[in-house]
Amino acid sequence: MTIYDLHCHSTASDGVLSPRALVHRASEMGVHVLALTDHDEVSGQAEALLAAREAGLRLINGVEISVSWGNVTLHVVGLNVDPLDSVLLNGLSRNRSGRTERARHIADELARVGIAGAFEGASSLADNKELISRTHFARYLIEYGAAKNMKAVFKKFLVKGKPGYVSHEWASLAEAVTWIRSAGGVAVLAHPGRYQIGREKMRLLLAEFKSFGGAGIEVVTGSHTPDQVPIYADLAVEFDLMASIGSDFHSPGEGGRELGRLTALPERCRPIWQAWEPG
Ligand code: AMP
Ligand code: MN
Ligand code: MN
Ligand code: MN
């Protein structure tokens, strides 16, 4: 049986392992086909591809694009993209460009509740200075002693209504799908179970996503509880979307899912890899 893990992060975004270390770890965990899907960034793909040759696994070039859909932030994964495509590169660069300013605002907000040095702290934890994310702030807040772990930090800080939340305008849903398709990839709605929208709004989202050319949704992900898997499997079937599977691994020991540690896709789903492995 081929083990797929089509969603994970390296130091090119908010993961803690270099692309090379990540690929080798995936191989040790028994993954055969891995997609590196850094947030708004493809700069890790070349190193990951070399490492995949060393480790003997298949690398799928990927990306996870931040999207503003009304007042909801969504993530759209692009799989099997050409990391040199100029439409994709320009779009990602635009999505990254607001991050540093946002990080300064986040740090100002945190300073107001007595947490000093957050911009410098988060920035020093970010290998890619164009990609300071909430994860880097979360790590800084833990180091600072403001919360004991990732789960706790995202309860007290960095989310709507809490200190350190700064709303931000990302790409539109149509743009993200267009950039991915321009790069020859397939667009997959990431971890749908994480969005705080009701059932009717989820159906609206899936219909819109599909109308823009979206091809799949994550059904099995480190972000879904076991009881969410059949819900999104049913929606995939109903909306004729392919199903994807990915750990969303960021780091060893921060409480997220380990690479490759995923249950199989439900039988009724059409796996997303049929998009690039026809037949
Ligand atoms: P950003 O793109 O800067 O808004 O950061 C989003 C990232 O923060 C996500 O990709 C996750 O890695 C992390 N994150 C957001 N919410 C949580 C949470 N509740 N628990 C752990 N990590 C989270
Ligand atoms: Mn992340
Ligand atoms: Mn995500
Ligand atoms: Mn992710």
Summarize the structure.
The chain has ten helices and seven strands.
Characteristics:
7 strands, binds manganese (II) ion, globular, 10 helices, TIM Barrel, alpha/beta, 279 residues
Describe this entry's structure for a reader.
This protein is α/β, with parallel strands linked by helices and 279 residues long. The protein has two domains: 4-96 and 172-275, Metal-dependent hydrolases (TIM Barrel), CATH 3.20.20; 99-156, DNA polymerase, domain 1 (Orthogonal Bundle). The protein is built from ten helices and seven strands. A seven-stranded mixed β-sheet has the order 1-2-3-4-5-6-7. Strand 6 (216-221), helix 10 (228-238) and strand 7 form a beta-alpha-beta unit. Helix 1 runs parallel beside helix 2 and helix 5 crosses helix 6 (134-144). The longest helix has 14 residues, at 99-112. It starts with a strand and ends in a 33-residue tail after the last strand. The mean pLDDT is 97. The structure holds adenosine monophosphate and manganese (II) ion (3 copies). Residues 64, 75, 190-191 line the site of one manganese (II) ion.
Mean pLDDT: 97
* Residue fraction in strands: 5-15%
Structural class: alpha/beta
Number of strands: 7
Bound molecules: adenosine monophosphate, manganese (II) ion
| Helix percent band | 25-40%
State the end-to-end CA separation. Answer: 16 Å
Shape: globular
Tally of DSSP helical segments: 10
Order of helices and strands: EHEHEEHHHHHHEHEHE
**Could you describe the largest sheet, including whether it forms a barrel?**
7 strands, mixed
